[in-house]
Structures are given as C-alpha cells and as structure tokens.
Amino acid sequence: CLATLIIMLVGDTYTLINYVSFINYLCYGVTIIGLIVLRWKKPKIFRPIKVNLLIPITYLVFWAFLLIFSLYSEPVVCGVGLIIILTGVPVFFLGVYWRNKPKCVNRLIESMTCWGQKLCFVVYPQGGGAEEE
Hints:
Keywords: Membrane, Transmembrane, Transmembrane helix. GO terms for molecular function: L-amino acid transmembrane transporter activity; neutral L-amino acid transmembrane transporter activity. The chain crosses the membrane at residues 16-39, 51-73, 79-98. It comes from Haliaeetus albicilla (White-tailed sea-eagle). One of its GO terms (biological process) is D-alanine transmembrane transport. With 133 residues, the chain is mainly alpha-helical. The protein has one domain (1-120). It has helices at residues 2-10, 13-41, 54-73, 75-86, 88-97, 103-120. The chain is extended and about 50 Å long.
C-alpha cells in the first residue's frame, strides 16, 4: 500500500494502471499453474468444477505470450510491478512466517489489522460487533 501511495503521489494514473495490470496478469498465471499442479499431484481431491486440462494449458500459452510481450515492450513498468509485489515479502515474514514474535510486535500487528479493518469497513475487530457502535 505504501508503494502504491507513493506512485500515486509521484506518477500518473495510467502508469499505476499498467503496474497493477502486470501484477494481475502475473497472479492469474500463477493461479492457473497452481491449478495444473494440484490436478497433477492430487488428482483425487474433490473439485466442485472440473474442466479439461486443455483449457488452463491454452490459457497459460496466451498468458506467457502476453507476459513476455509486456516484459519486452515495457520492462521498467514490469520491473516496478515486481518490486511492488516484493514489498509484501517482509510483511509476510513479519506477520505470518515469524511464529515466536515478542508480545509488542503481536500487539502492533493486531492493532494495525484492527485499524485497517475499521478504516476499510471490512470486518468487525475480534470481540467487537455491530452493537458496540
């Protein structure tokens, strides 16, 4: 979020849309790759919708073409998009991967989560409810 706010303050909206578009295409492709890997490694698990593998493979071919074309035509935009994605890695390690955090770090993360939920009207904080407001 911080990187996006900086880009919005410094750059124009068209560039921000390009960054987000590249990130979205990258995430869609990784999701389809995950689908194919799961179909290959765990073929017996329940799936509410099961499609022929030709569909996701065809999608991946077009996805790879679009991604390579984007990397070739606008390498700076794609690089900044990758940097935006990589800004989430420290957040992941701080909030999820690091299991034995000090209590002060846990309290900070919980208060930031609560503040973000209230700001965005996402969900009520733990222990709270609609009656309190």
